[in-house]
Amino acid sequence: MLDNLIIRAEEPADYKNTELMTMRSFYNKYKPAADEHFLIRIIRQSKDYIPEISRIAEYNGHIVGAVYYTKAWIVDGDVTTDVVTFGPLAVEPTMEGNDIGGVLMRETIKLAKEAGYAGIALMGEPNYYPRFGFERGAKYGITDEQGNSFDALMVLPLGNDFSNVKGKLIESKDFEKLEDKERLAEINKEFPKYRAVKVQEGFMQIFEQHLGVVESIEDDTYMVRYWELLIPAKFSQDLDKTPEVGSDVQFLWNHKGESEITKVFKNLLE
User: Fold this and answer.
1) Cross-strand partners of 94
2) Which residues touch 86 (CB under 8 Å, ≥6 apart)?
3) Model-level pTM?
């Protein structure tokens, strides 16, 4: 954990900086550009928002992380169990590898439990959230609203009687406002314009890997531009194409050792 990392409630003066950090956190990660900064505006205005357990992370006067909680329900016929869900969980991309997301999760899980919520349910990264105690919803007979079960649907029981909870996870209907692309376009005018890209064979759906551009080559080390950082990386011997200056690459960022270029893209579409 970073020394002097402050976890606190968000204040109105933080809104714009938190939105920019959130946009950067998700930019080109799961789709071209991002809409998570729009999502947190929707959440703040929702009657289902729970600011009492939502938190931001501040480091040296800068917002470097945030997580937002909303009400959710697990419905089985006439039986409804009140739970909470969260998202987005955002971390400033240049500060990754410092457990900021982990600190936010541990603190807000504690707050949710102290507030008396039965559990936390979410759709998220199945390779990340189990470290905080989350389990597959299928273990409890919990599905999405359409009755589907998959690894990304997870739950964390907070009460003693969660074994009796089952049914469909219902989230706030306010999330449907995220489909308003015209409103998103208006909001985007308030922020810096970054390069939105799409991998030719599909969207970037990767975890712990990143998209960067080779800025220079020094012997067998490739200096990869990732936001404001230059990250030295080797390239995997399995690659059939050698990176060049200007190449778009996918790389595994090893914060404690040697980073590795794992893919060279032939064409990224604007």
Assistant:
1) none
2) 54, 67, 68, 69, 70, 108, 120, 122
3) 0.92
**b vs e for 9-23, b when ≥16 Cβ sit within 10 Å of the residue's Cβ?**
ebeeebeebbbbbbb
- Among 104, 40, 43, smallest CA distance to 71 is for 43
In whole angstroms, give the CA distance from residue 257 to residue 253: 9
Place 202 in a pLDDT band, splitting at 50, 70 and 90: very low
Tell me the three-class secondary structure of 159-178, residue by residue: CCCHHHCCEEEEECHHHHHH
Token pair listed for 170? 């219902």
Residue 189 φ/ψ, nearest 5 degrees: -65, -15
Separation of alpha carbons 59 and 100, rounded Å = 10
Residue 176 pLDDT > 70: yes
Peptide bond preceding 88: is omega within 30 degrees of 0, i.e. cis?
yes
Distance CA 5, CA 61 (A): 10
CB atoms within 10 A of CB 89: 23
CA dist., res. 80 & res. 82, Å (int): 7
Of 58, 67, 54, 65, the C-alpha closest to 4 is: 58
Domains within the chain, CATH numbers bracketed: 6-188 (3.40.630.30), 198-269 (2.40.50.140)
At 79 the pLDDT is 95
How many whole angstroms separate alpha carbon 109 and alpha carbon 216? 43
pLDDT value at 203 more than 50 = no
Range of lowest pLDDT (64-78, 114-128, 202-216): 202-216
At 119, phi and psi to the nearest 5? 180, 175
